[in-house]
Automatic annotation (TrEMBL):
Swiss-Prot/TrEMBL keywords: Electron transport, FAD, Flavoprotein, Transport
CDD domains (alphabetical): ETF_alpha (cd01715)
Domain of life: Bacteria
Family as reported in the entry's similarity comment: Belongs to the ETF alpha-subunit/FixB family.
Electron transfer flavoprotein alpha/beta-subunit N-terminal domain ranges (all copies): 5-196
Protein name: Electron transfer flavoprotein subunit alpha
Listed Gene3D superfamilies: HUPs, TPP-binding domain
Transmembrane segments: none
InterPro entries to which the protein is assigned, alphabetical: DHS-like_NAD/FAD-binding_dom, ETF_a/b_N, ETF_a/FixB, ETF_alpha_N, ETF_asu_C, ETF_asu_C_CS, Rossmann-like_a/b/a_fold
Amino acid sequence: MRRTILVFAECRDGKLRRVALEALGAARRLAGADGSVHAVLAAPGGAADEAAALAARGADVVHVADDPALRAFAPEAYIAALRAAIEAVRPDALLLGHTAVGRELAPRVAAAIGAGHVADVTAIDETDGVFTRPLYAGKAFERRSFTPGRPWVVTVRPNNFEPAETLPAGEPQGTVQALPFTVPPILTAVRSLVRRASGQIDLAEADVVVSGGRGVRSSAGFEPLQELAGVLGGAVGASRGACDAGYCGYALQIGQTGKVVTPQLYIACGISGAIQHLAGMSQSRVIIAINKDPDAPIFSVADYGIVGDLFEVVPLLTEEFRRTQS
Ligand code: FAD
């Protein structure tokens, strides 16, 4: 097994996202001991630190695309940079994070180069080159394998792969080089970026997610959940029921039409467990459900179930976690 793998090293605010390092780790294993791993860094201004971090964590070559068009998210410019890297490297697979950016770029790059595309991959069999992705809210799994001759474009689900570690001292590090590419006419105009002021940890990358459903009853009902998430260093999510009721913004929605999360710990509070919600969280490592209805379907996917009123249970949990941490 000897493969050439290209990774799109996604950044946010000029910093590498954790999923970029996870994709790099997956790429290193998929390439095999004799294979090679290349990373594309779209970095207006160079981002020397991020390029060096990739080279120190196992990218044999870091290709830096540096152009002002990459400053705002203009998909045409990113696709042009990725196509230039694919042309130069001729990889067996291009790996991207299954993020909003990755989900936009991957199918467009695949279509542009006539490659196969597999999205939302949660496991890779490195020996046989088989990608696994969940279907039907995790009830079934699809396995797709490499066909020789054409590259695969693959998005990997955040929080599913071990991130690439820094190479031990003395091991040769990768090289960093400029990626020449031509910026095409940009058809997408980003007029402004509106950021949430909450400073909340990225839901897709959080190790702990505390989610509220219609059972929280109001936006103030989310406060105990925020406190619990704060103590655990996690993020707050929601069901669509809670979003539709106006208790929180749709940015928090988890599920089929929301975000897909795979944290180490998912705590569902006052969420019934509709199939569309399960589609976004059923692959979490450990699931705790708190619901006052013992027959709520969420208990069928939960590792631990607490039948009770969330307004009593959540503060008790918060207090207990705070006590064990102090
Ligand atoms: P409910 O089903 O009303 O459940 C509330 C739960 O809270 C109940 O189980 C109740 O027992 C419990 N409860 C009430 N009070 C308390 C209390 N004090 N303490 C403890 N428990 C309490 N849903 C999503 O979540 N994500 C999606 O992405 C999504 N996409 C959809 C796409 C489509 C096309 C469609 C048709 C639906 C989608 N839905 C989605 C909606 C989904 O079908 C459910 O309607 C929704 O998930 C229900 O939200 P809920 O569990 O918060 O509310």
